[in-house]
Specification:
With 246 residues, this protein is α/β, with parallel strands linked by helices. The protein contains 9 helices and 9 strands. The protein has 2 domains: 172 residues, P-loop containing nucleotide triphosphate hydrolases (Rossmann fold, 3-Layer(aba) Sandwich), CATH 3.40.50; 56 residues, no CATH class. Helix 1 packs across helix 2.
Length: 246
Amino acid sequence: MSALGATTDSVVALLKTATILDLVAIGQRADPGVPLLIRGEAGVGKDILARLIHAASTRRLSSFIKVNCGARPVERCEADLFGHEKGAAPLATRRRLGGFEFANHGTIYLDRIEAVPRALVPRLLHVLRTGQVSRAGGQEIIRVDSRVIASTVENPQAGGDDDFRQDLQRLNVIEICIPPLRRRTQEIPLFASYFLEAFNRRYGRNVQFPSDVMTTFRARAWPRNLLELEETVHRLVTGGVMAPAH
C-alpha cells in the first residue's frame, strides 16, 4: 500500500507546499458545477490534489468517490460510473449504485478520464451536462449533485479519444496542470521526509537520511515523479539501496 494512503487525512501534510496550495486554491475558487480537469505526468500527484480540493471544499463532509475510468471490461466501468439494476447483466444479481450516486452532494473523481471506453462516452457526457444518470438496465432518471474532478495523463502516449477531449472543452472545464517533480525540486525534501516518516512508522524503524541524500534527490530527473521518490525512500527504509540515477 502506498504511503500516500487512501484517505484525505493521510495527505494533509502535503498542503504545506506552495505549488499544491496554489493549485488547491484554483479548485476552491472554481464553480463546483463546472468540472475540473487535472493534467500532469504519471505519478505526479493528481489523486492527491483531487482529494485536497475536496477536503478544502464545502462538500468535505460528504463522500469522495474515485472511479478508475480505465477499468475493463466495459461492463465493469459502466457499473462503476452509473450502476446497474438487478438482471442488467449475467452477474448483476442485485441492484448496484454507481459512482455518481455514491458521490451525491460530494465529489466524484474520474481518474484517467481519457481511458473511458468509447461506448460509454455519450452517457458520461450526458451526466456531465445534465446531472442526470440512469443505471444500466433501468428506466429511472436520477438527479445527482456531484462535483466532478477528472484527471488525465499529460500527453498520453496511447493517443486517446480526441473527439472526447474536444467535447470536454465544450463543457468549459477548468484545467489545472501539476508540474513534474523535476520542476519542483524545492519541494522534494518535504515529500521525502513525509515518506520517510510514514515508512518508519509502518515498519517500526527509525531510519534517517544520509547527510548528502537531498543533494542526490534534487539532481535526479524522477521520470515517474512522486511514485519513484516514494519507492526510493521505501527501499532506504527497508534496507535496500537507491536505484541508479536517471
